[in-house]
Amino acid sequence: MTKAFLDDRFLLNSPVAERLYNEYAKDLPIIDYHCHLIPQQIFEDTVFENITEVWLNGDHYKWRAMRANGVDETYITGDAAPYEKFEKWAETVPATLGNPLYHWTHLELRRYFNEERLVNSQTAPAIWENVNGQLKEKSVRELIKQSNVEVICTTDDPIDSLAYHIQLKQDKEFTVQVLPSFRPDQALEINRPTFTGWIAKLADASKVNITSLADLKAALQQRIAFFAEAGCKVSDHALDQLYYEPATEEQVDAILQEALAGKKVTQLEEAQYKTHLLQFLGQQYTAYDWAMQYHISAHRNNNTKMFNTLGPDTGYDSINDGQIAVPLTKLLDSLAMENALPKTIIYSLNPKDYYVIASIVGSFQERIPGKIQFGTAWWFNDQKEGMLDQMNALASIGLLSRFIGMLTDSRSFLSYTRHEYFRRLLCDVIGQWVVDGEAPEDYELLGKMVEDICYYNAKRYFNF
To answer: DSSP string spanning 411-447?
Structure first.
């Protein structure tokens, strides 16, 4: 029987899947343990003037689709009027059939605004008026509450004052936890032109004069303690290329001295510095019982012309194809040897790494259920096939039942429908096992598994 577009059976292909979703997954709270939402907007309870502000500003998924559809940059990141940008997106949406953007666009309109018209150039004016009218009554906090979100972990630089997190923590009327995440990429990127300038800012924030490796570690320790006081329970690292090159404290200190003097260090020295600092940071995360996230295999800023025009994170990144097994295993092993391997979540942007990661995480499990996690399908892969591939790889050689599930990794307050998308796919996978006779139709067993993956595993894992 043909399904209606986005009907109640969307992505659910058996009665078992429908029951699992509707009775066990659908109404669970959301724990968004990794995102790029702006805490200032949550604190100030921003009210967006129009759908362009909440939908298109900063969304490089949509920007890439618009460019692929031939839309001029003026209507993407340029100075075109908000309605003109929305109109160009509406013209692009029909061309996104087959891309998750088609589903996400219509899910967001339906779930937040009860808007069921298909998005195209003809419906754009009516959708614009309807949604903008409702947005006046839907502040950021209202959107979060409507999404049934319990915890939000933003992504924050070690030098951040965390002023908005601290004020939100003191706001008794807003019960959603908005917690910082420690993202020290700038401390590791020793060859970036911005390195010495960032170190100066770290010195200011930590009140530590940084002239040596010991000083740098002391400054990072101070900021980790500060983040922990603000409620931080998770760190994050963008490891576009993995290294493992052990070196002595003295060697790494000399490398840092070169960089602080404004000199470029060699590729080997960079690898030695990064290895040493990642080991140090892993030890700190273990001491604070934080989870450590590694985001691996992105190839960023491919288009130099547009990078020079627009800067990073504007939709010109892609999947990297480097080898990760040896350096990742050795890095984790070096921490495990010191009894300093924290809870760790590993994501890869390249699906070729899925079975590699699923097998590596199984080599370091201990004490805590699912201590080392194969993270959910990320970025280019957080779509139907990518999510299914990740779940099947994990289920095949690990414990899907201990998986901590979905996150948004988004800059938009409307992206929480991605949790619905994920939950439907999860229930469909498990439901199909029952249909195929590969799992019993035991709803006590299967329902608990669904509830754990969608909510309880993450709540326990991060100690929220």
So the answer is: S-TTTTHHHHHHHHHHHHHHHHHHHTTSS---HHHHH
Number of domains, the chain: 2
Q: Does 402 share its domain with 356? A: yes
Q: Indicate which CATH number applies to the domain containing 364.
A: 3.20.20.140
The domain boundary residue, chosen from 96, 116, 138: 138
Residue 2 has pLDDT above 90, yes or no: no
- 234: amino acid identity, one letter: V
pTM: 0.97
Radius of gyration of the chain (CA): 23
Question: Exposure string (b/e) for 120-155, b if CB count within 10 Å is 16 or more?
Answer: eeeebeebbebbbeebeebbbbebbeebebbbbbbb
Q: Are residues 53 and 34 in the same domain?
A: no
Q: How far apart are CA 207 and CA 221, in angstroms?
A: 12
Among 138, 158, 177, residue at a domain's last position: 138
The model's pLDDT over 393-405, given as tens digits with 9 standing for 90+, comes to 999 999 999 999 9
pLDDT of residue 20: 98
Which residues, 6+ apart, have CB-to-CB distance to 131 below 8 Å? 51, 109, 113, 115
> Per-residue DSSP letters for 79-117?
S--HHHHHHHHHHHGGGGTTSHHHHHHHHHHHHHH---S
| Domain residue limits at 129 | 48-138
| Tokens (6 digits) for 213 | 């490796």
Residue 256 has pLDDT above 70, yes or no: yes
Residue 144 lies in a domain: no
pLDDT digits (tens, 9 = 90+) for 165-201: 999 999 999 999 999 999 999 999 999 999 999 999 9
**Nearby residues of 197 by Cβ (< 8 Å), 6 or more positions away:** none
What is the per-residue pLDDT for 1? 66
DSSP string, 320-342: -----HHHHHHHHHHHHHTT---
Given CA atoms 163, 168, 172, 177 in this order, what sign does their dihedral have? Answer: negative
For residue range 308-336, list pLDDT tens digits in order.
999 998 999 999 999 999 999 999 999 99
Per-residue pLDDT at 58: 87
92/153 same-domain check: no
The tokens describing 196, both together, are: 């010495």
- Give the mean pLDDT of 376-403: 97
Number of Cβ within a 10 Å radius of residue 219: 23
